[in-house]
Amino acid sequence: MAVDDHGECKHCKFDFNGDRIWDKGLEIHGTEEGADRYAESYGARKGFGRFGKQVYVKPYYGDNFKKGETFFKCPECGGRQ
Ligand SMILES: [Zn+2]
Predict the structure, then answer these.
(1) In angstroms, what is the span from residue 11 Cα to ligand 1's centroid?
(2) What is the pTM of this model?
């Protein structure tokens, strides 16, 4: 399910809210029908659902590539969320 408010960085207050997904779909496809299909694949719709600017981190450790705990990082200050 899409999110409409991604909040801000708890360290530097960087705004994590990106473009509305539907608006991006309209830009790419040029029609409302195309934008609807595009948004739907993200669980978004017209007026709801934004891309987030946080960086998703999936760490692997050591020679056996042991999986670490996933987390989000701020693209501005690099702070862990
Ligand atoms: Zn930050």
Answers:
(1) 5
(2) 0.83
The rounded Å distance from CA 1 to ligand 1 centre is: 24
- At 75 the pLDDT is 97
Both tokens of 11, joined, read: 């360290």
CA of 71 to the centre of ligand 1 (A): 14
Average pLDDT over residues 29-33: 98
- How many CA within 13 A on the CB side of residue 69? 3
Distance 32 CA to ligand 1 centre (A): 35
Q: Residue 5 corresponds to which tokens in the numbers above?
A: 């408010």
Residue 8 has a pLDDT of: 98
Question: Which pLDDT belongs to residue 62?
Answer: 87
